[in-house]
Amino acid sequence: MSEQSRGKYALILGGMSAFGPLSMDMYLPALPAISGELHAGASQVQLSLMACTIGLALGQLVMGPLSDTYGRRRPLLIGVVVFALASLACALAPSAYALAALRLVQGFGGAAGIVIARAVVRDLFSGVALAKFFSLLMLVNGVVPVLAPVLGGQLLRVTSWRGVFVTLCAIGAALLVAALLALPETLPPEGRRPGSLPQTLRTFGGLLRDRKFTGFALSAALAFAAMFAYISGSSFVLQDVHHLSPQMFSLVFGVNSIGIVTMGQINGLLVGKVDSRRLLAIGLSCNALGGVSVAVSTLLGLGLLALLPALFVTVASIGLVFPNATALALSGHRETAGSASALLGVLQFMIGGLVSPLVGIAGSDTAVPMGLVMGALSVSAVVVFAVLTRGRART
Description:
82% helix; mainly alpha
């Protein structure tokens, strides 16, 4: 494959795989504005974040198997159309509950881009080329969380929160046109297989009965949920409680996202030299240290000088947690790697989505719920890891 074709596929598939952070992060600076305009409390507005996350999780379970049965192109295009139309409908939402319902649909459509983009890469590449291309997509996924809230904050200078969703619609439409013109079908009819719901459920059941798989997957999901509590609550905490502007909030969010990318690169240098389980233990310990520090700083009212470093440690540790937890969870499941990967993603998005309303349960003028949720989840991740993954496990 020529370098030009590789670059073309990287842009299209990278954009598709970034639907998750685009959907969740770009509108974060607008959450207080949404709360005010729709006359809804912080917890009600955060339902839209939970709904999008659940849509992203369920969509992967549905669209991935569909792409194995009907080919990649048709389900992918349908999903992108659903994402674009749902984004436009979000811009017209009359209430917080209507916004949450539409965000569920938006997440479901966006999930097609995430899960099918990975499948397309597997169709196109193998061996070293496959690993290199996935590394390229991971770089895109690391940069988008940095840029999305910054773009959202800048958009709020010239438009309302509704304009943010119009922008998401435009991004979806642009990717749809690019896929129509430049992305061929990559799974030929002879490579497709009939779907079987009972077989899929049996595979998931077998994975969940594997103690170490469950330990690695659940500890990573709980650490992700701690970060998701930060994603859900930080816009209210930093803007309403600590009076940062949307632009300053975007800057803080971007710095924390850079922490994930940096730790991910450090992890890449250490893998092969340091035991993967040890790297995961270090990442989870840092996550717990940061989460407990966030809880203490919010309970004692220590201010931004204590809160911001604690948030940075909690978020940046994900760069160590995710790669190693994923590698360790999948290492013993070569024949069911696709189902195992889907289950990893579902656990992460489902637990993260379910805890997000708890962050705003006491209103938008206190940071204590966010601190307590982050502290409890990060400590739980360490406990699950210690109890369920005892014994030798290397990649």
